[in-house]
UniProtKB/TrEMBL annotation:
GO terms for molecular function: lipopeptide binding; signaling receptor activity; Toll-like receptor 2 binding. InterPro entries: TIR_dom, Toll_tir_struct_dom_sf. The keyword Nucleotide-binding does not apply. GO terms for cellular component: plasma membrane. The keyword Transmembrane applies. It holds the Pfam family TIR. This is Toll-like receptor 10. It is found in: Membrane. Keywords: Membrane, Receptor, Signal, Transmembrane, Transmembrane helix. SMART domains: TIR. One of its GO terms (biological process) is inflammatory response.
Length: 98
C-alpha cells in the first residue's frame, strides 16, 4: 500500500507549484505531538482527505480512527471532502465491525 501511495498516487497529485501538498504520517509529523494530534491537525487543515483502502489498512489500528476523525470533521465543517480509493478488494471477514 505505502509503495503505491509513494510512487503512484503522490506523484500524480502533487503539483510543482506547491498548490497541492500531501500530508502523510511519514515525514509530516510534528516533533512532540502524538500521532493522534498530528492526524487530527492534518485532517483539519486539509481541503480533501483521501483514504486508500486495502486489506492491510483495515488490519491497522488507525483504520478505526482516521476515517472517524475525517467523518467528524465532515459534519462539523459541512464539507464533502472524503475520497475513498479501494486499492484491493477487502474480504468481508477483514472488515472491522465498528
Amino acid at each position: 500500500d505505502s509503495a503505491w501511495v509513494k510512487y503512484e498516487l503522490i506523484p500524480s497529485l502533487e503539483k510543482e507549484d506547491g498548490s497541492v501538498l500531501i500530508c502523510l504520517h511519514e515525514g509530516n509529523s510534528d516533533p512532540g505531538k502524538s500521532m493522534t494530534e498530528d492526524t487530527i491537525n492534518c485532517i483539519e487543515k486539509s481541503y480533501k482527505s483521501i483514504f486508500v483502502l486495502s486489506p492491510s489498512f483495515v488490519q491497522t489500528e488507525w483504520c478505526h480512527y482516521e476515517p472517524y476523525f475525517a467523518h467528524h470533521n465532515l459534519f462539523h465543517e459541512s464539507l464533502d471532502y472524503i475520497i475513498l480509493i479501494l486499492l484491493e478488494p477487502i474480504p468481508l471477514y477483514c472488515i472491522p465491525t465498528r
